[in-house]
Structure formats: C-alpha cells, structure tokens
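Saturday, quiet lab. Running sequence design on the structure tokens for the scaffold JK sent over.
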C-alpha cells in the first residue's frame, strides 16, 4: 500500500473515532509534503473542521496524535496552520523499496475499461513535416503512452489533410513548371519535392498580385483574380467532380509525400493504429451537413453556401459548404468525428492540435451537439503552443520552415560533436557510435520539447537541448548509462542487489520517496495530458541520484550487506528512469 492510501484509510478511522462521523471522500485530502516543509505526506485539515468543530491547529494536533499511535509506520507529525505534515519511519520506506522491486510494471495502472482515441500529426500533403509537426508528433505519442500507463485502451490516429486548395496549389505548380520531375530523378524525398512546388506556387502568386496592383487593381481584388489562384480553385472543383486526369496527378504526388512522411515517422519513433484521409471523411461530412440542412439545424444563403448560426452559443456564423459545393475543414472534421465514434465508441477523443485552432474545436463540439451527438462533450482539444527558433517564426508558404528531417540531422550531428569532445567513446566501434549519436540526438530533441508544458509557446535551442549537465535528455541518458555500468561491473564480480537491515542515508530515503511518487505522477500527467510532468519528474530523480552517488561508494563498499542494499536501490532507480523515459518515447543507452 502506498503512503497516500495508507494515510487516507487511517484518517477515516481517526475522524470516526475522534469526532463520531465518517468523512465524505472529498473531505479526505492527502498529498505529498512540499519540499520546503518537514514531512513526507500532508493532510489538508480544513475540510475536516466541520466534523471536529474546532480550529485547524487543534484539529490537526488531535489527528496527528491519533495517527502516530494508530499507524506503526508514522514516526512524527507537525501542524502548520491548516496542514498536518506526517513523517514516515525509515522502515516504511525500506519496505516501499522492496515492494517496488517486486511489482511488475511499477507505476502503471490496471485496465480501466475505457477507450481513448488520440489524433496527432495531421499533416498536409503539400509540404514536408517541420519543427511544429515534431512537437505535435512527440506530444501525441507521449500522451498516448501516458494514457496507456493509466490503464486505458488507446487508439492512435492520424488525419491526413490530402485535399483542398493548398493541395491544388502544389499540384498546379508541378503540372505547370515541374517538367516531370520525380523524387527519383531529383534525389529528393517526395515530401520535400512537393513542398518546393508549394513554395513556387506562392512565389508566382505574389508576382501576379504585384502585376495586377501595378495596373491599379486593389490588392484584395488582385488576390482573388490572380490567374494562378483561379486555376487552383478550378482544379479543386474538378477534383471534387472526380476528373480522371486531376485524380491521377493527385494520387501520384500524394504517393510521393506519404513515402517521405513514413521515413520521418520511423525516425521519430511514432506510429498510428489507423490513418484517416480527408478525401474520404469529407464525403460523410457533406452528408451530415445536408441532413442538418433538411432538419433546420443549418441554413442556406442565396449563393448556395450552407452555414450554421452559433449565436445562441456566443459564437458567430460558421461556413460548412461553399457556394460551389466544396467543403471546408469543419465539414470533414464533422464526418471524421462521427465515423470514429461509430467505429470505436470512444470514451474520450483527444485532438493534439496547435492553439491557433482553439476556436475551430470549440465550434466543432457545438455543431455536433446541435446535430444530436451527446458524446461531443467527450471531445478534448489538447491545445499546444507554437515552437519558435532563436531566429524567429516559420512560414511554410515562404519556405522559411525548419524541416523535421533537417533538424533531426542537425541534432544527431550536434550529439556527435558533443560526444567526441567528451572523449568517452574510444572503446566503441563506428557502428555503435552512430547508433549512440542517433539515440542522444533524438533523446535531446524529444525531451527538450516535452519538458515544456504543452500550452506554452516554446523556444527551441538545439545546442542547449544537448547539454549533458542541464535539464536535458542526454543528462538523464548519461545517468542511466552510468548506473548500467555500475550494475555490469557488479555482475562481473558476482555481487547482487539485496535488501538488508543496514541504516539508510537521508539521500537514499529521498530517492525512495521520489520513486514512490511515480504512480501518482503518471496519474497527474494523464489527468492533464502533460508529458512535462513525466519529464521533469525524471530529471528530479536523475539529479537526486547523481547527488547521492557523489557521496557514496557502491562497488568498493567494504560492508557487503550495505553494498548489496545500495545495488538494489540503483537497480530500481534505473528501472524507474527507463520506464518514465519510455513514456516520452526516449531510448536510454546502456553505454555512453
């Protein structure tokens, strides 16, 4: 039994014995003691005053006296205003370590019976994945792993935006100026080749706008009447009409992009249980819109466009079908949501999408509820902040984005240079070194992104992310490798980690307490969909271990029982580090 459960159970008995009443579950509030105060676990006294009919300090004192006498594991107590801080005996933490060691998948929850669907990535097939997509993908993957650790069945899905005016732009540019270039003929990844034509389209578009403005045509009119944008719009209409030539071009160019995406996903270490395509789901969305129009949920303007009036929800009018009959993002998101619920009956659906789409998902839920889908309340938008670089923001259409592939290459090269400077890899062959550079580079990239609360806009600094001494992935990776080195040497000498009755240092007890909090950290991270809680917890554990290891000897400890006891502690620290970093999608190397 963990410390919180133990105290919660004892506290109920204490209230009943002292005050003659059984407290409601919400009145029992037990939490870890804040670092600046003495104690291991804190009871919030204020909710219990209604039962004690006494002041907070007197109530806390009475409860503390009772718990010290009634619970053998409690050593002492302190009352600070409305908080009762309890200190547990060293024997309790010794037993806690033993329990952690023998518990399979320590920290993970039993099956909850709930299904959670998580959508992430959601790329457009007109450009390669960039730094923003990296945050999206590693965040989506990590949240999926955290929800699995909380006992839920997780379905990881990707919605590929493979149709629309932006796709038509890259298609038109390749058709007009491409000279039949292919990934094979150019040696470029397919997603990069198509992205180049998206940028080219915008260049030509801006040129034509400038020419029209030079003829005294207002900018707003010029943007609508530039020949290339009219051609792209015409191509989109033909696509929705199923024009054979346009469909063939669309399939060919999307095929190039998908192959490129798959290579990037594999290197990032992310995958999906199912991939949805907007080209399929928008049709169901259009059917839903037509049904809503028949039922009076939506209305049609004179130009034929279909809208939803959201005024009663404090929102505006939302376009669902354009006058030419083509659909918008909202149309396909309606269709996608309904088809996913019909397929899986999810209990919760999490959309991992940037905060620029906050309004979109607010509207999506309202429209689905208007259409009669009560489960819309279970749609959650995990809104994350944008990623910026020291040199500024990125813009896809201007070709100023940082490609995911290029950034990953840069991270691995930075890891190589940093590792070579350390001079610790001389006993590794070139192949082992290359694998280590990849592990370190990707670990640095993922950790630096995931340690930041998802809601915050973040500044990504590649050099800072790979520092072996700060709150970084490589610091934790190095800590794990150091422990593994000690454990290998111990095994070579025939030493085994075992629990004995040797006294424990305060730093040893501190490590056990930190590890004992791991299940609660997983719960809290799952409740708010935040890998940052896992990341920063892992750093605290790694930092605590390094501080401890600087003060003790393990392999050269003359007291064999003490040596074996410390080895057992090291084994468990390594186990928790590996488990936690796995939730972030980060590999820990055995050697560095």
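Result came back. Writing it out in full:
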């Amino acid at each position: 039994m963990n410390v919180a459960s133990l105290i919660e159970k004892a506290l109920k008995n204490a209230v009943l014995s002292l005050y003659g009443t059984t407290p409601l579950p919400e009145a029992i509030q037990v939490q870890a003691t804040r670092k600046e105060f003495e104690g291991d676990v804190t009871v919030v006294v204020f909710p219990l005053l209604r039962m004690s009919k006494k002041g907070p300090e007197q109530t806390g004192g009475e409860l503390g006296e009772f718990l010290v006498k009634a619970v053998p594991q409690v050593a002492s107590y302190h009352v600070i205003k409305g908080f009762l801080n309890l200190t547990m005996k060293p024997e309790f933490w010794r037993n806690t370590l033993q329990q952690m060691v023998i518990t399979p998948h320590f920290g993970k929850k039993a099956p909850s019976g709930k299904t959670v669907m998580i959508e992430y990535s959601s790329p457009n097939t007109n450009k390669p994945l960039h730094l923003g997509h990296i945050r999206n993908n590693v965040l989506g993957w990590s949240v999926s792993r955290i929800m699995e650790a909380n006992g839920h069945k997780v379905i990881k899905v990707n919605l590929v935006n493979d149709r629309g005016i932006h796709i038509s732009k890259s298609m038109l540019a390749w058709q007009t100026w491409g000279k039949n270039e292919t990934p094979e003929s150019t040696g470029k990844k397919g997603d990069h080749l198509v992205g180049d034509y998206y940028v080219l389209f915008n260049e030509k578009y801006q040129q034509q706008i400038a020419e029209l403005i030079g003829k005294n045509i207002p900018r707003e009119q010029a943007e609508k009447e530039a020949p290339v944008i009219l051609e792209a719009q015409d191509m989109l209409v033909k696509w929705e009409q199923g024009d054979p030539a346009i469909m063939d071009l669309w399939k060919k160019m999307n095929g190039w992009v998908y192959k490129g995406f798959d290579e990037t996903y594999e290197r990032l270490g992310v995958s999906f249980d199912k991939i949805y395509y907007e080209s399929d789901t928008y049709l169901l969305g259009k059917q839903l819109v037509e049904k809503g129009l028949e039922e009076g949920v939506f209305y049609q303007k004179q130009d034929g466009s279909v809208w939803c009036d959201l005024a009663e929800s404090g929102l505006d009018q939302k376009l669902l079908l354009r006058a030419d009959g083509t659909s918008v993002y909202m149309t396909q998101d309606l269709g996608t949501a309904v088809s996913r619920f019909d397929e899986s009956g999810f209990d919760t659906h999490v959309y991992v999408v940037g905060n620029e789409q906050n309004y979109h998902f607010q509207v999506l839920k309202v429209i689905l509820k208007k259409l009669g889908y009560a489960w819309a309340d279970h749609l959650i938008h995990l809104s994350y902040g944008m990623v910026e670089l020291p040199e500024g923001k990125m813009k896809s259409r201007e070709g100023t984005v940082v490609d995911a592939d290029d950034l990953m290459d840069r991270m691995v090269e930075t890891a190589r240079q940093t590792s070579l400077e350390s001079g610790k890899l001389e006993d590794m062959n070139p192949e082992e070194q290359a694998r280590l550079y990849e592990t370190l580079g990707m670990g640095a990239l993922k950790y630096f992104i995931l340690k930041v609360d998802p809601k915050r806009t973040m500044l990504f600094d590649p050099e800072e992310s790979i520092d072996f001494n700060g709150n970084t992935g490589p610091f934790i990776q190095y800590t794990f490798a150091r422990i593994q080195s000690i454990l290998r040497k111990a095994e070579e000498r025939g030493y085994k980690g075992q629990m004995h009755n040797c006294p424990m240092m305060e730093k040893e007890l501190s490590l056990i307490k930190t590890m004992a909090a791991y299940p609660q950290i997983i719960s809290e991270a799952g409740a708010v969909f935040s890998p940052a809680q896992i990341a920063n917890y892992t750093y605290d554990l790694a930092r605590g271990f390094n501080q401890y290891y600087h003060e003790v000897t393990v392999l050269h400890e003359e007291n064999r029982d003490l040596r074996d006891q410390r080895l057992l502690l090291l084994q468990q620290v390594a186990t928790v580090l590996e488990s936690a970093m796995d939730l972030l999608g980060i590999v820990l190397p055995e050697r560095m």
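Notes for JK: The longest strand covers residues 153-160. The radius of gyration is 29 Å. Ask whether to fix the surface positions before the next round.
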